[in-house]
Amino acid sequence: MQPNNSVTEFILLGLTSDPMRQKMVFVIFFIFYVGTLVGNLLIIMTIKSSRTLGSPMYFFLFYLSLADICLSTSTAPRLIVDSLSAKKIISYSECMTQVFALHFFGCMEIFVLILMAVDRYVAICKPLRYPTIMSRQVCIILITLAWIGSFIHSMAQIVLALRLPFCGPNLIDHYCCDLQPLLKLACMDTYVINLLWVTNSGAICSSSFVILMTSYILILHSLQNHSAEARKKALSTCTSHLIAVILFFGPCIFIYTRPPTTFPTDKMVAVFYTIGTPFLNPIIYTLRNAEVKNAMRKLCHVKITSENKR
Q1: What is the pTM of this model?
Q2: Phi, then psi, of 186 in degrees rounded to 5
Q3: Quick check: is 1 in a domain?
């Protein structure tokens, strides 16, 4: 599928060329990446080991944390290493792999957020039918469909990327490989490919955001018939989800739903949803969730007790 290219590697320009700022980039994003790994792994371990976190909401939160780790890992390690490198070289095959991983796990995050919104809608609006509608088997089927949908989306992206011929230059004005900066380097008319790219990624981001907002509007409307305590609990959960949705979809829509133009802020916006949001999600879902915090305390207590017995 790869066209005849005279370019076998690319040079990533990164976030900055200033040596002092590069050191700052290293420190900041090393902390962000370690925080992302620790926070999301702690959520995964807590959900796996806790009997109280067996509901569909935590089943989907498990996969959101997994997607967060993988999405951040697809970009953050290279950004961290490149910040200390004189030449930020990435091979053609590594670049294509990064395009695939970025879109696969980014799309997975979108689909999991939708499933979490659906779960909250059914739990609040159809409480009597909730155990039947959101059974374990149904949840497994839904998450499997999310994996399949993510794979189809990322395959569409990589097919478009592999059709691009590169004759030079090979400087990518970004900190990672994505289709938009690659389109600027292709030695061909990219109008059709760009249209397909915006139609694919832009449609997924926009339609998913509309679906999510509609579901939360319906949830808020249905809460009028609930007690004050039930409204408070439901609003607390939904607020956490809404914060995560806005933080992730705002940058995505900005990047993927516009004509083939670039802005100076593009790289920082991309950093926010590929590295920033995976770092913030564990904070959002633990600080506002008493059940997760209690389960984490119990997990830590069990670990400390078992260590002391040794």
Answers
A1: 0.88
A2: -70, 135
A3: no
Q: Which domain holds residue 93?
A: 9-309
Q: How far is CA 261 from the centre of its chain?
A: 23
What is the Rg, in whole angstroms, of the alpha carbon atoms belonging to the chain? Answer: 21
Q: DSSP 3-state assignment of 164?
A: coil
Q: Is 129 helix (H, G, I), strand (E, B) or coil?
A: coil
Domain count, the chain: 1
CA–centroid distance for 162 within its chain: 23
Q: What CATH number has the domain bearing residue 256?
A: 1.20.1070.10
- Rounded to an integer, what distance in angstroms lies between the CA atom of residue 20 and that of residue 245? 34
Which tens digit of pLDDT belongs to each residue from 99-119? 999 999 999 999 999 999 899
**Domain-located, residue 2:** no
d(CA 80, CA 15): 11
DSSP-assigned letters across all residues of 256-270? HSS-S---TTHHHHH
For 61-111, what is each residue's pLDDT tens digit? 999 999 999 999 999 999 999 998 878 899 999 999 999 999 999 999 999
CA-closest candidate to residue 51, choices 295, 289, 308, 246: 295
Please state, in angstroms and rounded to a whole number, the distance separating the CA atoms of residues 230 and 232: 5
| Gap between the Cα atoms of 143 and 65, Å rounded | 13
Is residue 3 included in any domain, yes or no? no
Helix (H, G, I), strand (E, B) or coil at 25: helix
The answer to the question of residue 4 being in a domain is no
Q: Which candidate, 159, 199, 209, 2, places its Cα nearest to that of 91?
A: 2
d(CA 280, CA 35): 9
Contacts of 109 (CB under 8 A, 6+ apart): 64, 67, 68, 71, 248
Paired tokens of 189: 């008319």
